């Protein structure tokens, strides 16, 4: 047994050496980003490796009941099935991927008879769907299959999906062991192990539910969500958040420029976003935003004008670019109400900028209803290049890890402000799905905004770490 494990370990290491295991940002057959890509088609160019694999497969056959024929899932598993067929002197059949337009239009080539017991061979299994397609064609011609021998199980639901079809899967290697062997050989580091493990756990495919794999954003670390974000500002934010270990946005609702600049300087080290209502400044001058831009660069945060646009496209376009505030020239992200719909979003699409759409509001008596909220989320998902995220109080789009949930109404003291504002604590908002929490008066009214900002940062970050555990 120890000998077999050593062979499997060396198989895993060889795969890495020949470049069949790739770590980085890839996309799976189901169009889902993946931090690891396994390409076992390469092994046809390494006869010694095929020999090693065949030896290991033969060892595994001791656990599998007798069979009459072998069938490889096209195309990657065909050389493996052929090698095994030759070594064991057991006949092989081949499944076509598509039927011929001439002759007998057979899907299964080779010699077989009804009632034959077949062992299916496959290279890599994610959901098991390719094995199931092969199984269906074999069953069609009366061949029975209840076992599949595969090289690599990505542990993303394949075993369960195949059991439902009456097939037991036997794998030479699974993702857990692959990561263990590669880590022990120092080919990968701990962070890759954690990243891939987390990916595996959060990307399970249940073929019977007829849905795409569930990617629960609430369980994914921010740095892994960069790959899912289409909006440049969302990518940037995830990066800043991971690097600075902060999911805090400060709402700098003050009326004097000096105060605004002082707040940016004091809270800068602890925030990912600095949120303004620029039109409440009594002494606005364009120099203020120039100063903010410099502080943002120094402390690595983005500038966020909470303008809440809500007009026809043309008007919003002018409100965004013109007037004395020239928001487009300095704000990296802005907010917009969704009520004007797609036309307004089309009007404010600008290369690099981002928009947070308001799906819910944190004030009591709001007339936004469930229908409006749902329509807003739908609209946001139609504009992945433009929309950075959604302003809301609840986890509305958990299977969309590329979008950011921004939640205002955050304070340790949850008494309202007497004007309708509703507050929740950092723990509650992160539990309710917030990726970034907006804290205004909890920080701005403190005698030491820097101390308060660090306190909120640490509480919010701790709650996030607990959430992704
Ligand atoms: O639903 C919403 C949307 C935006 N806001 C804005 O956030 C801050 C909250 O400030 P606090 O002092 O923490 O109450 C403020 O700028 C609002 O305009 C919100 O509160 N709720």
Which descriptors apply to this entry?
lyase; elongated; 39% helix; binds the ligand O=c1ccn([C@@H]2O[C@H](COP(=O)(O)O)[C@@H](O)[C@H]2O)c(=O)[nH]1; orotate phosphoribosyltransferase activity; EC 2.4.2.10; 18 strands; 2 domains; eight-stranded parallel beta barrel; 469 residues; Rossmann fold; alpha/beta; TIM Barrel
Question: What's a quick, concise take on this entry?
Answer:
Helices cover 39% and strands 20% of the residues. By secondary structure, it is an alpha/beta fold.
Shape: elongated
Output the strand order for the largest sheet.
11-12-13-14-15-16-17-18
CATH fold category name of the largest domain? TIM Barrel
Say which molecules are bound, naming each kind only once.
Answer: the ligand O=c1ccn([C@@H]2O[C@H](COP(=O)(O)O)[C@@H](O)[C@H]2O)c(=O)[nH]1
Q: Mean pLDDT, as a whole number? A: 92
How large is the radius of gyration?
28 Å
Q: Roughly how many Å apart are the termini?
A: 34 Å
The CATH homologous superfamily of the largest domain is named: Aldolase class I
| Low-confidence sequence ranges | none
Total E-strand runs: 18
| CATH hierarchy, class of the largest domain | Alpha Beta
Biggest sheet architecture: 8 strands, parallel, barrel
Query: In the residues, how many domains can be counted?
Result: 2
Helical fraction:
25-40%
Residue fraction in strands? 15-25%
CATH architecture call of the largest domain? Alpha-Beta Barrel
Alpha-beta classification: alpha/beta
Q: How many H/I helices?
A: 17
Keywords: Decarboxylase, Glycosyltransferase, Lyase, Multifunctional enzyme, Pyrimidine biosynthesis, Transferase
Protein name: Uridine 5'-monophosphate synthase
GO molecular function: orotate phosphoribosyltransferase activity; orotidine-5'-phosphate decarboxylase activity
InterPro entries: Aldolase_TIM (IPR013785), OMPdecase (IPR014732), OMPdecase_AS (IPR018089), OMPdeCOase_dom (IPR001754), OPRT (IPR023031), Or_phspho_trans_dom (IPR004467), PRTase-like (IPR029057), PRTase_dom (IPR000836)
């Amino acid at each position: 047994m120890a000998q077999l494990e050593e062979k499997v370990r060396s198989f895993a290491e060889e795969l890495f050496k020949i470049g069949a295991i790739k770590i980085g940002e890839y996309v799976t057959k189901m169009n889902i980003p993946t931090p690891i890509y396994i390409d076992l088609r390469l092994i046809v160019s390494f006869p010694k490796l095929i020999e090693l694999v065949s030896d290991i497969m033969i060892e595994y056959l001791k656990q599998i009941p007798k069979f009459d024929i072998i069938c490889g899932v096209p195309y990657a598993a065909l050389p493996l099935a052929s090698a095994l067929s030759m070594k064991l002197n057991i006949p092989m059949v081949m499944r076509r991927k598509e039927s011929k337009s001439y002759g007998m239009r057979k899907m299964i080539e080779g010699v077989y008879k009804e009632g034959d017991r077949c062992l299916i061979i496959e290279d890599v299994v994610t959901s098991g769907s390719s094995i199931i397609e092969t199984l269906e064609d074999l069953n069609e011609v009366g061949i029975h299959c209840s076992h599949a021998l595969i090289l690599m199980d990505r542990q993303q639901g394949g075993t369960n999906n195949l059991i439902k079809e009456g097939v037991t899967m036997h794998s030479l290697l699974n993702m857990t062991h692959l990561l263990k062997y590669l880590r022990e050989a120092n080919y990968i580091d701990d962070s890759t192990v954690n990243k891939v493990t987390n990916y595996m756990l959060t990307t399970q495919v249940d073929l019977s539910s007829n849905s795409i794999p569930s990617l629960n954003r609430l369980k994914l670390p921010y740095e892994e969500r960069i790959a899912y974000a289409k909006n440049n500002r969302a990518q940037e934010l995830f990066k800043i958040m991971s690097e600075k270990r902060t999911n805090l946005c400060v709402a700098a609702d003050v009326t004097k420029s000096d105060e605004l600049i002082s707040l940016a300087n004091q809270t800068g080290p602890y925030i990912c976003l600095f949120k303004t209502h620029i039109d409440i400044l009594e002494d606005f001058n364009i120099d203020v935003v120039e100063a903010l831009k410099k502080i943002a660069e120094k402390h690595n945060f983005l500038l966020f004008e909470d303008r809440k646009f809500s007009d026809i496209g043309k008007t919003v376009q002018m409100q965004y670019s013109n007037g004395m505030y020239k928001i487009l020239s300095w704000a990296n992200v802005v907010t917009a109400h969704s009520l004007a719909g797609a036309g307004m979003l089309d009007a404010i699409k600008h290369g690099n900028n981002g928009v947070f759409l308001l799906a819910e509001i944190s004030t009591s008596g709001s007339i936004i209803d469930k229908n409006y909220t749902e329509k807003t989320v739908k609209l946001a998902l139609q504009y992945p290049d433009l929309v950075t995220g959604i302003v809301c109080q609840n986890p509305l789009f958990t299977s969309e890890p590329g979008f950011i949930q921004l939640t205002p109404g955050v304070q340790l003291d949850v008494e309202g402000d007497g004007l309708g504002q509703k507050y929740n604590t950092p723990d509650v908002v992160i539990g309710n799905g917030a990726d970034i929490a907006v804290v205004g008066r909890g920080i701005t009214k403190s005698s030491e905004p820097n101390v308060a900002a660090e306190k909120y940062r640490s509480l919010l970050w701790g709650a996030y770490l607990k959430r992704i555990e």
